[in-house]
Each structure stands twice: as structure tokens, then as C-alpha cells.
Amino acid sequence: MSQNILVTGGAGYIGSHTVLQLLLSGYRAVVVDNLDNSSSVAISRVKELAGEHASNLDFHKIDLRDKPALEKLFASMKFYAVIHFAGLKAVGESVQKPLMYYDNNITGTIILLEVMVAHGCKNLVFSSSATVYGSPKEVPCTEELPLSALNPYGRTKLYIEEICRDVHQSDPEWKIILLRYFNPVGAHPSGHIGEDPCGIPNNLMPFVQQVAVGRLPSLKVFGNDYKTKDGTGVRDYIHVIDLADGHIAAVKKLADPSVGCEVYNLGTGKGTSVLEMVTAFEKVSGKKIPLVMAARRPGDAEIVYAANGKAERELKWMAKYGIEEMCRDQWNWASKNPYGYEKSA
Ligand code: NAD
Ligand code: WQD
């Protein structure tokens, strides 16, 4: 019989791709999302893409902080595990509204863990981030590097990781996998689901995509005086489908009796500069991205990329896609849905 997986934030960018991969791998997925930063159209599209597996997906519009609603859901069925994506993620906004971030991300997580334990579900996969390495003193970032946070958003990830370690320490029946994502980009190759940020995008590729479809005039390159190959910042971009598959590997790993509270980087292990990324996107889209050189963005690290050996050894997972495929699929999604979910054909 297929296992029920609860996916918080499953209507969002990474969540929707993961839900699809879960369904295609034979799991039943129950999504909880308040749709604050997503659209229910994403859920309908996932169902379309899932074909014969579509009936294995249920959606509930619930805010994680609504404990009675979460209690009711857990009382109605048994979950094998929870994949916990739900959270706010805009770094700049978190500096302006720290209490909103602490309340949403941390309170939401505490309530989720309380309800899980009350209903005997102690298997968790959590969306952490490479942001917990702060400005790393060395690269590649191994899971053992010292942790720090540069902003309230990053601190929510760091604190939730610590909460998970304490929860596991207090009750070793918990099995927790903390996944530190590097820079997720791209979209499902069908072009039917992808990232649809509200307002002006903060991240590089959603911004590039909006320039390509004519919604924004040019891309500001934040700093071209870094000590990198071409002076621009270097990151580890990872295709969202690879990332989604990393979650399937993590859910499978939960069955391993040796799992306690484990942490894994999900990255490709390769660093790519802003200019390399733009050039790759221009090549696959045939669109020129006008650039404006600008000052460094405060708080930005120079070079960040993952050591991916631990995930490869222990999760038997490795990224399959390269930069060209990431840009191809980002463009396919953008050209089919230039205004995202709500206004697309
Ligand atoms: P997203 O905003 O597209 O998805 C998050 C989803 O959670 C949204 O659908 C939102 O409506 C929902 N949500 C937020 N607060 C909620 C609440 N209190 N109750 C119920 N639903 C709630 O973001 P994403 O890019 O898919 O990121 C998913 C997770 O991965 C987040 O936790 C994020 O911090 C983490 N992460 C993202 C990145 C990235 O660059 N995208 C990198 C590292 C980690
Ligand atoms: C990538 C590169 C920018 C926008 C952020 C969060 C991190 C994680 C992933 C969630 C950098 C440059 C960007 C632009 C640019 N999210 N850039 N012009 O900063 O690595 O990480 O997203 O956990 O927490 O901080 O990603 O996509 O914003 O930037 O030149 O308009 O692109 O300076 O070098 P980042 P990003």
C-alpha cells in the first residue's frame, strides 16, 4: 500500500515539483498550504502532469499555525512522514519584518512538530538552506562547516535546525533529515509548473526570466569586483527536478534504522557566476538580457557551492542536470506562462 506523505507548502515552487515526483514514485501526497505565496493552479497542473496518479493528491488550504485545523487533518489519516517546505523566504522582507518571519517559520514549525508527535508521526524532512553557512570561509561547503546567519530569514532556518536537533535528542524515535538546498532554478520540462514569485523577484533567475519576457527592462548585476572568474558572484545552481528527487531519496532514507537527525547538502558541487548564468540563458532563449552593473548587494557572499559527497554516499542521490537544462526549462516555463499561473493561457 502506498505511504501517505504530508507536504507543507506543497503548492509552492519546490513543493509542487516534489509533490509531482512523489506521485510518480507511487506515494500519496497530502498538501497543506495557505497559498500566501502560491496558487491553487499549481496543484491542478500537478494533477494534470501526474496522469493516472492524480487521485493520490489531496489539497487542504490550511495555515500551519492553525493548530485545530492541522489536528483535524492528522486525526483523519495516518502519515508516514512530513516534508516541511512551508515558510516565508524573502531575505529583504525578513529584515523589514523579522517578527512575521519568526512567527510564520518558527511558530509554524513548532505547531507542526507538536501535532506530529501527538499523532505518532515522527518522520520529518525539512527544507533548510545553504544560507545557514552565512558567508562561508571555505568552499565547497561541507555539512560540518560552522553555521551562522546573516539575516532573520537565515536565522529561522538555523533555529529550526537546532530545534530539530533538540527534538531528536529528547526522543530518539524521531527521524529527521535536514536538507540544505543551494540555489534551486529551472522548472518541470513540460513548462506547466515553475516558479511564480509575487512582486519583483529577489532571486537571479526569476529576475532574468521576467527581463526575457519583457516585464522588466534589465538585470542589475550585483557586483563585478568579486575575486571570481569574471568578477561576479558564484553560486551552486540546482535544477528543481533534481532537488525534488533529493526529497524522494530522503523519504526513502527515513526507513534506514541508523537515521537520527541528519543533514545533507543538495547541490551540484559546481560554481557558476552570474554572467555565466545569463549567457547560458541567452543562448537557450535567443533573448538578449540587458545588464546594468551595480554595487554589491549587502550581505551577499562571494562564492558558495556545495560539497555533495555526503548526499551521494548516503542518500544515493546526485544531480543529473546541468546549467543548460536549467536555463532551457526556466525559459520553457517562462515563455508558456509569462505572467505566472493566474494569467497564463
Ligand atoms: P515558495 O514560497 O514557493 O513555497 C513555500 C510555500 O509555503 C508557499 O506555497 C506558501 O504559500 C506556503 N506557506 C508559507 N507559510 C505558510 C504557513 N504558515 N502555512 C501554510 N503554508 C505556508 O518557496 P520555495 O522556493 O518553494 O521554498 C520552499 C522551502 O524551501 C522554504 O522553506 C524555503 O525557505 C526553502 N528554501 C528555498 C530556497 C529557494 O531559493 N527557493 C533555497 C533554500 C531553501
Ligand atoms: C544569486 C547571485 C547575486 C539577483 C538566496 C538566499 C538564500 C537562498 C537562495 C533560500 C548572487 C546575483 C541576484 C539580481 C544579481 N534562499 N544577483 N542580480 O543570494 O545566493 O541566495 O536564494 O534559502 O537564502 O539568500 O541567490 O538568486 O538572490 O543571487 O546579480 O537581480 O545572483 O548577487 O551573486 P542567493 P540569488
SSE blueprint:
Elements: E1 4-8, H1 13-24, E2 28-33, H2 40-50, E3 57-61, H3 67-76, E4 81-84, H4 91-96, H5 98-118, E5 123-129, H6 152-170, E6 175-181, E7 183-185, H7 204-212, E8 219-222, E9 234-235, E10 237-239, H8 240-253, E11 261-266, E12 272-273, H9 274-285, E13 291-294, H10 309-315, H11 323-336
Parallel strand pairs: 1-2, 1-4, 2-3, 4-5, 5-6, 6-11, 7-10, 8-13
Antiparallel strand pairs: 9-12
Helix pairs in contact: 1-2, 1-8, 3-5, 5-6, 7-9, 7-11, 9-11
The structure holds nicotinamide-adenine-dinucleotide and UDP-4-deoxy-4-formamido-beta-L-arabinopyranose.
The site of UDP-4-deoxy-4-formamido-beta-L-arabinopyranose (WQD) has 18 residues, from helix 7 and strand 8.
Describe what this molecule looks like in 3D:
Helix 6 (152-170) links the parallel strand 5 (123-129) and strand 6. The longest helix is centred in the first third of the chain and has 21 residues, at 98-118. With 345 residues, the chain is an alpha/beta fold. The protein is 39% helix and 17% strand. It has helices at residues 13-24, 40-50, 67-76, 91-96, 98-118, 152-170, 204-212, 240-253, 274-285, 309-315, 323-336, and strands at residues 4-8, 28-33, 57-61, 81-84, 123-129, 175-181, 183-185, 219-222, 234-235, 237-239, 261-266, 272-273, 291-294. The protein is globular. The protein starts with a strand and ends in a 9-residue tail after the last helix. The strands form 4 sheets. A 7-stranded parallel beta sheet has the order 3-2-1-4-5-6-11, sandwiched between helices. Helix 1 runs parallel beside helix 2 (40-50), helix 3 packs parallel to helix 5 (98-118) and helix 5 (98-118) runs parallel beside helix 6 (152-170). Bound molecules: nicotinamide-adenine-dinucleotide and UDP-4-deoxy-4-formamido-beta-L-arabinopyranose (WQD).
